[in-house]
Specification:
Shape: globular
Helix content: 25-40%
Structural class: alpha/beta
Low-confidence stretches: none
Largest sheet: 7 strands, parallel
CATH architecture: 3-Layer(aba) Sandwich
Strand content: 5-15%
CATH superfamily: NAD(P)-binding Rossmann-like Domain
Number of domains: 1
CATH class: Alpha Beta
Bound molecules: NADP nicotinamide-adenine-dinucleotide phosphate
Strand order of the largest sheet: 3-2-1-4-5-6-7
């Protein structure tokens, strides 16, 4: 659990990943996956006291540390960065995001005819500004690590090519397209420091977010997606072309 004690990695000889949105869905599965490979895992969540499953996991594995982080709050990011000062982060995994609307409520706040400004701000702040600003706050930690990787979790819904004939969730779609461009720009800036910035998509995964979208087709289990994402992360090199890659290794057309 997060505490006021100085932060210490349980196993400084092993690599370390920080996962945002680590209390459920793909984030929680990523915690399990990286911990299963012997990594130190900093599991960042906005409401640690409510993260029951994650806390149970952390209680049984000292390499998993739960820390408080709201990706819409720069103050929260700075607090975490201060706590982690001097801690090398091999992988910063920007996983947290919101869909921003529930399909089954008939909510139209991000559809033409009901466009809602406050929801736009919330989705863009969470899905776009959050990952970029967090990278800015934690770049000294990533630069001090061995692997030096920053991941943006994208989606096929952010692809102009794939969405040519679809309008599902305007803001979510826009947020992932904007994330792609933000991470692309970050890649350019951080490459000279030996940092790999990559865009990975988890596939269709059976989580709360997918249920909210109204999708009822086949989906991967979070653990399946996390296992494949882990392999992709480990395979990334500084020569990575920086285009969105799906969980199955296929490039996602922009
Ligand atoms: N599931 C899919 O099929 C799919 C497909 C393509 C891309 N993705 C992407 O994969 C990632 C994970 O999605 P998921 O399906 O696992 O979603 P999920 O089950 O809805 O989980 C989202 C996570 O993000 C966290 N989060 C939301 N707002 C936050 C904030 N302000 N600060 C900190 N954490 C916040 C949530 O925490 P709380 O519990 O506190 O809300 C939760 O842990 C997202 O980037 C999503 O866009 C998912």
């Amino acid at each position: 659990m997060s505490s006021s004690l100085p932060f210490r990695l349980a196993d400084p000889a092993s690599p370390t990943v920080l996962v945002t949105g680590a209390n459920r869905g793909i984030g929680l599965a990523l915690v399990r996956e990286f911990a299963g490979h012997g990594w130190n895992v900093i599991a960042a969540v906005r409401r640690p006291a409510e993260a029951g499953e994650l806390i149970a996991l952390a209680t049984g594995d000292p390499r998993v540390r739960v820390e408080s982080l709201d990706v819409t709050s720069v103050a929260s990011m700075r607090e975490l960065a201060a706590r982690l000062q001097g801690v090398p982060l091999d992988v910063l995994f920007n996983n947290a995001a919101i869909l921003g609307d529930r399909h089954d409520t008939g909510n139209t706040k991000q559809k033409f005819g009901g466009l809602d400004e406050a929801l736009f701000d919330q989705v863009m702040k969470t899905n776009v500004y959050g990952p970029l600003k967090l990278a800015e706050c934690l770049v000294p930690n990533v630069a001090a690590s061995t692997r030096k990787k920053i991941i943006g979790m994208t989606s096929g819904l952010g692809s102009l090519a794939l969405m040519e004939r679809m309008s599902l969730f305007y803001y979510y779609q826009m947020s992932k397209a904007a994330l792609n461009m933000g991470m692309r720009a970050l890649r350019h800036d951080l490459r000279p420091r030996g940092i790999t910035v990559a865009l990975l998509a988890p596939g269709m995964v059976g989580t709360d977010l997918l249920a909210e979208s109204g999708y009822r087709g086949e989906a991967l289990a979070p653990a399946q997606s996390a296992a494949a994402l882990y392999r992709l992360v480990e395979g990334l090199t500084i020569g990575d072309p920086g285009v969105p890659v799906n969980v199955d290794g296929q490039l996602i057309p922009w």
